[in-house]
Amino acid sequence: KQEVTQIPAALSVPEGENLVLNCSFTDSAIYNLQWFRQDPGKGLTSLLLIQSSQREQTSGRLNASLDKSSGRSTLYIAASQPGDSATYLCAVRQFSGTYKYIFGTGTRLKVLA
Amino acid sequence: DVKVTQSSRYLVKRTGEKVFLECVQDMDHENMFWYRQDPGLGLRLIYFSYDVKMKEKGDIPEGYSVSREKKERFSLILESASTNQTSMYLCASSIRILEAADTQYFGPGTRLTVL
User: Fold this and answer.
1) How far apart are CA B71 and CA B93, in angstroms?
2) Residues of chain B with pLDDT under 70
């Protein structure tokens, strides 16, 4: 059974730091991995999607990498800003009999001004 | 831009009531999903639909049913609400079921409280 883990559960950093969020998964038979951002009390916003054949994707200050063989993905945020404060979730879309995304429980990020 | 809307942001219901949560997407997506999100448990899939009138159970379908009569609308029904169904409910849609580039788009969520 696929399990997706995000460590740490919470992170607090001063503004301007470069930081890395981690996501690990137990079954490498996936179509893709997606990173989302969630603000308090709101829905999820897609940040980056990495297909299983890709190694990384970039959008602005965000870079996500995928290493299927080790079951890991990282989300790198450059020059963090207070506006980056949110919960970040990763989700894998796996091969299975049904169409499913499996979500991690998220990392709650606070960037201090 | 894809837009997914949910009928209510906040809802308070009493135990035993029948509850309808509505979700509408405006991008002609084939797939639609209902999740619930609880602290420490993350998002869990309740039901999904890959076509009109088609549905499949997710991980936690007990106590819920769904309806998809039109492509753009996916309804979640709590037949008899219970306090353990107090949660944040999130609807999502996506365009294709077999594409590795398939991206899920989420609505703003409905926070349901059952008293």
Assistant:
1) 11
2) 1-2, 96-100
Tokens of B26: 């405006």
> Each residue of B22-52: pLDDT tens digit?
999 998 898 999 999 998 888 999 999 988 9
> Tens digit of pLDDT for each residue in A38-68?
999 889 999 999 999 999 999 999 999 999 9
Which stretch of DSSP H or E encloses residue B45? strand B42-51
Checking B8-11 for CB contacts under 8 A at 24+ apart, the result is B8/B110, B9/B108, B9/B109, B9/B110, B9/B111, B10/B110, B10/B111, B10/B113, B11/B110, B11/B111, B11/B112, B11/B113
Strand pairing category for A10-14 and A62-67: unpaired
Distance CA A58, CA A42 (A): 24
In angstroms, rounded to a whole number, what is the distance separating the alpha carbons of residues B44 and B35?
5
> Taking CA atoms, what residue in A is nearest to B41?
A105
| A46/B104 CB distance under 8 A | yes
**Nearest-neighbour CA in chain A from B11: distance (Å):** 13
